[in-house]
Specification:
single chain; mainly alpha; 5 helices; about 75% helix
């Protein structure tokens, strides 16, 4: 029974970590777009900063949708191997972003093609930021469900 509870708690932590990672990647993309448009922290535009309250969660929905399958594979690998280092998750986020870019390229839709190099690098950077934030919220305890509880280890 304790194992089932441990599995459910770990699954909830993974879901929370995925939400945090999606929000962080979305915030990174939003800040990059605002910086590209010329908004700086020294001279904040009230409408631009207020729009972040809506656009960050909205874009996070798309980030979470498109990254779900590759992220599930990376999270499964991390859980099985018990990887707890931030670099694994940052590189895993970059791999997830590259898989997304490959999917977009193979889709062949002219309206949804990312051809500019800076945009591709921004997506890869957002994947890395998302991976690091996943590590901060859930990845540091990867594989913890595999350890035997202390009460079960006693004779």
């Amino acid at each position: 029974m304790r194992r089932i509870i441990a599995y459910l708690i770990r699954f909830a932590a993974i879901l929370v970590g995925y939400v945090v990672a999606s929000l962080a990647a979305s915030a990174f993309l939003n800040v990059l777009v605002l910086a590209h448009l010329g908004y700086t922290p020294a001279d904040p535009e009230p409408t631009a900063t207020a729009s972040l309250y809506f656009s960050v969660p909205f874009v996070a929905l798309f980030v979470a949708y498109f990254a779900f399958m590759p992220a599930a594979v990376v999270i499964l690998i991390a859980e099985v191997l018990g990887r707890r280092d931030w670099l694994f998750y940052a590189l895993g986020g970059a791999v997830i972003a590259i898989v997304f870019l490959g999917f977009v390229h193979n889709l062949g839709d002219a309206n949804f093609d990312i051809t500019e190099t800076n945009a591709r690098l921004a997506v890869i950077g957002a994947g890395m930021v998302g991976g690091i934030f996943y590590w901060l919220s859930a990845g540091r305890w990867a594989g913890s469900w595999r350890r035997a509880p202390l009460l079960d280890a006693q004779p």
